[in-house]
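We both want to read discrete structure tokens more fluently, so let's practise on a single case. Would you write everything just below, so we can both look at the same thing?
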Amino acid sequence: MQLPLERLADPVLRDLVTNLPTALLLVGPRATGKTTTLALLAAETIALDTPAVAGVVAADPDAALVGRREPLLIDEWQAVPAVLGAVKRSLDAPGGARPGRFLLSGSVREDFADAGRTWAGTGRVTRLRLFGLTVRERLGVTGGPGFIDRVLDDGDLSAGADPPDLGGYVDLALASGFPVPALEITDPATRRIWLQGYLDQLVTRDLEQLAGFTTREPVRLRQLLAAYAANTAGTVSDRTLLDAVGVSRPTLRVWERLLEAVFVIDLVPAWRAGRTARLAAAPKRYVIDPGLWATIAGLDRNGVLADADLLGRAVDTFVTAQLRAEADWSTHRYRLHHVRAHDGREVDLVAELDDGRLVAIEVKATSAPRPDDARHLRWFADKVAGNKVAASIVLHTGPRTFPLTDGVQAVSISALWGPGGGA
């Protein structure tokens, strides 16, 4: 499927394929456009999700790479993990480490797909992540800097043109980031059918093939996903999940790792200062795609808008999906964390840059944020992280960006897709 718009990844990948003498590995959820994105750069493709092709490559991975046109795209490499070793050997050969030789795509995290082996890609594979479409990509406003870039470089944080109201944000969230439901399906009921089919294939085929589950396990996996959906954007306890699913703690860990590996859930780690023992270590758990979250939870627009708790989780999950998708493609690359103290004070998201600077973010499902909404951000900057905090922001559903209190800005969520970008 050819996407009718540019991805945030495209200019970065074009530069890397020209200048970086390693293979490029693009990982992320199924059906988010990885193959389409890399095919624009490739001269030839080996489709390992085709069993006959996979069988030939598995028989002799090194021979399968000889004489191919480059850049060569190896699609769904995890179907034949041994191909990664062949890529490394080809790059290690005299004169082999040249830019623009190998592109790889994968729908399973590489550490899971190649479990039990020594990772063959060290030094020879550059890994990047492609998630679902952001609103920026849907609107075709990918040319400017990302949100965190604008925050750090004093860019324009004003609202997008014609910013949505609260219901509009819910509509954007439930539209999903998968290109087919986001771009090609306008009817909410039909979109839910597509997402349910995606979920069914994932649980009944993909995960069984990946982990060798027995036939009864998909039922419990659905129960675990339902528990995740009920608690998305929260620091839910292990006990809550264990009670919902009825498995042991080691089994829960294995299943969580499996669902992380196929990019259905995300455990956003807690940010910990070196000597700050007052902060909790539990991750914040998310269903990665907000449309898939609503499908798992059995929710539609009216159901989300009728419950304040669900509304808050929907908006947080949506905002996090936007920021997660930009993390690898921003000029200032970052990792997402959250903060929670044992006394209940918390900061929804903390973007941590390689140089240690932090952007602290609270997400509020309100159009009229108050100074009190910034109290945890002020606590974090004043008492916990100190001068590491480069900016503190309350993202809200209103149309304005303005100073909220000392050191904290209230910023419209629509600023995520940039000033002038209308949804």
